[in-house]
Write a structure and sequence with these properties.
Blueprint lengths: L3 H17 L1 H15 L6 E4 L16 E6 L2 H13 L6 E5 L12 E7 L8 H11 E12 L5 H18 L7 H7 L3 E7 L4 E7 L3 H9 L5 E5 L7 E5 L8 H16 L1
Parallel strand pairs: 1-2, 1-4, 2-3, 4-5
Antiparallel strand pairs: 5-7, 6-7, 8-9
Helix pairs in contact: 1-3
Bound molecules: S-adenosylmethionine (SAM).
The site of S-adenosylmethionine has 21 residues, from α1.
Length: 261
């Protein structure tokens, strides 16, 4: 399922990876790590953690599981964690994103920085991420992708000729669409420089939605329309809005009237 060739490539470039990406890392990615990584809370999954460039930006004592398919990349991440004395609250797991050895609904936060450009099976991987994330848990994506701007995308397609054979990274993924296809709820989505976007998502909490539904705590305001007793206007309110007793009764009455007539 996972491309062994890709894993072998990362194993073989692991020692040079930080050096090869140094200009991009310093100019573009590091400021984004500094901004978003400290926002991770609870039990954290660092997705395709690579050489562990997020490690020093987690809050002190943060519990983090770093997963990557390349042993070479993880060895460097482990060395960094030791040097920064962050190892005690961190675990390093060699596994493929497509098939992670974690229970369902396990993590509070997933950090995904510069990941979906490299995975062979993006849809399988994101569905696995969704599986291991707790309902209501958060995913912090900092990913580069196609922009929808003709000129910029032409540059990205040209860059692909260099990045795919060297660091195995595609510049032309549609990660925004992928996130929506996986049924994740986007809370924040902004361009953060170049073709990078920051996307904060959550996994919808189906149990909570069911409970709210059964208790009539719907995100809608329902009331009888003055135009007709049988019609109902539904308008969006706050996410945890409640239907007041009177309005609930009005609606029931108008339904009863409709049934009788
Ligand atoms: C571009 S590097 C980014 C590393 C890290 N996220 C960072 O921000 O520096 C991509 C990483 O994804 C890992 N990777 C690629 N495909 C993977 C897969 N299917 N499962 C797990 N890791 C994978 C590679 O081994 C590599 O370490």
């Amino acid at each position: 399922m996972v491309c062994r060739r890709r894993t072998a490539r990362y194993d073989s470039i692991a020692r040079f990876y930080d050096w090869m990406l140094y200009p991009l890392e310093k100019r573009r990615i590091e400021p984004l790590r500094r901004l978003y990584v400290p926002q991770a809370e609870g039990l954290i999954l660092d997705l395709a953690a690579g050489t562990g460039n997020n490690i020093r930006f987690y809050r002190p004592g943060a519990s983090v599981v770093l997963v990557d398919t390349s042993r070479g990349m993880l060895d460097i991440a482990l060395k960094k964690a030791r040097e920064l004395d962050r190892q005690p609250s961190m675990r390093f797991v060699q596994a493929a994103l497509e098939n992670m050895p974690f229970a369902d609904d396990f993590f509070d936060t997933v950090v995904s920085i510069d990941v979906f450009c490299s995975v062979d099976n993006p849809l399988e991987s994101i569905l696995e991420v969704r599986r291991v994330l707790k309902p209501g848990g958060v995913i912090l994506f900092v990913e580069h992708m196609l922009t929808g701007n003709l000129r910029k995308d032409l540059v990205l397609k040209t860059l692909n000729l260099l990045t795919v054979p060297t660091v195995g990274s595609s510049m032309t993924r549609r990660t925004g669409d992928l996130i929506l296809s996986a049924g994740l709820e986007v809370i924040e989505n902004e361009e953060v420089g170049g073709s990078f976007r920051f996307i904060r998502c959550t996994k919808p909490d189906v149990q909570r939605l069911k409970k709210d539904f059964s208790e009539s705590k719907l995100p809608f305001e329902t009331r009888s329309s003055p135009a007709s007793d049988n019609s109902v206007i539904i308008s969006r309110r706050g996410l945890r809005g409640e239907i007041s007793e009177t309005k609930d009764n009005q609606m029931r009455n108008s339904c009863n009237q409709a049934e009788r007539s």
